[in-house]
Structures are given as C-alpha cells and as structure tokens.
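quick one, 256 residues, struct below
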Amino acid sequence: MNLVSTLWDLSADLYNVLHPKGFRGRLLEAGESLTQMESDPRSLIRWGDGETLILLGRDVYFQKANTRLQSYMKRILSDYRRGVSRFYLAVPRCYLVESRQKLKADNVLHVWKHSRLVFGSMCSRRRIYFDANMFKATALFPGHYDRIMSFWKSCRRLIVVHRNPDIPRKHFRQAGIEGIVCCVPIPAENAFDAFDDILSAILAALEEANGFSVKYDRIIVSGGPCAKALVYELAQRGYVAHDVGKFFSSEEAGVL
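---
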C-alpha cells in the first residue's frame, strides 16, 4: 500500500474516533427522497462505497482504478457542495449517520469509514442529500418497487442503459410500460473503459428521439461508478437521468 493510501486509512480512523456519531447533514430518508424526486424532476447520482474507493484511487472488484473516473467523482462532490449541480446526490444514509460503535459491532466500519470521512470533510451540511436506498425494492422498503415503476410509467419515453437490456425490458413489460426508445448495453466489468462509446450511443439515441423532453422523458442508467460519470455528463447537457444501481435485481419484481 502506498503512502497516500496509508494516509487515507489513518485519516479515516482518526476522523471516526473524533466524530463517532457520523455525518450530521440534511439527509432524507428513502421515502422522503422519492417524494422529493417526484416533485422536482432532476437527475440523480447515487454514491456508495465503490465510488469512495474510486475517489481514493483504488480498485472496485468490477471497476479498476482510473484517474479520469476519479476526476468525475471529485467533480460530482465539488459541484454538489457548491450548489452548482444539475443533479441530486444520494448517499448511504444508514452508514453515515449510524454510530461508530454500532458499525464496528456490525463489522462494517472498515467498509464505510472512508465514506464517513469523505462526507464529513468534503461535503456541505447545508445541502439536501437523498438516501441511496431509495432505489432498493426489498422487504426492507415495502412499496418502493411499485412506486418507482409508477413514476416511470408516467414518462412518454425512456432510454435504458444496462449490462443486460433484456432484464429492464422484462420489468417494464410486467409494469405495462411501453415507452422504451432504446436500450444501450454497458459492460458488466470495467465499464468506464468504454465510457466515451457508451456516452456517444446515448447521445445518438437522444438525437434520434427528436424532442426528448425534460418534463416527460427519462434516461435510466445502471452501471456502477461509470453510471455516475454518465449521469453527470447527461445532466450537464440538460437531460434528466437516474442512476438506479441494482434496482432491476429487486426482490419485489421476482427478476433476479
């Protein structure tokens, strides 16, 4: 491990000792996050432990470290902190607000200590943060699946970015959603290596779907840390894109 990584580890350990209660910003719960998204259509980027690892210059098991991707992570945090973003940022609320003692007892402090440091030192407590769990449709979040699918059902057209387009297509068929314009495939591993090609394919689909509307249409992206960079670029261009993580593997849908 190099010196920079060692310093990050030591800093994270020290931060969590000095701030055992975690991040105390304006963090919405999952249900509140959905309500806000419904009332204010804007792009959404979800942040998890993988994004923190990329920010630190480390590999994720399905995405190797990349300096360009790392710069996107920095810009996402910086833009959001300064209030100049065109997206909402969703964070792992339960791991940021839980006490250090509880996380240590659950043997997950080592996973989340760096994220707690990042949000405690690099993010504004005045900004509203969504809950990244808003796109988890499991027994812990009853009703989320139907609520989200209903939200997309009101859209006229959708562009979907996913490693296996047949999976979201099956979800949409089950929900009676017929407005899919295009499905853009994304690699399951090291997706950012194909970032420019994926972004170009999305932009081409948008150009072909003449008159794609901010009010009525959405771009749905599932693709790990690469999805964050894609949503960032699409939001900068004025489109509304949602980073949905593993939503299409939701237990409620029965499509695993």
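Residues 142 and 232 are 29 Å apart (CA to CA).
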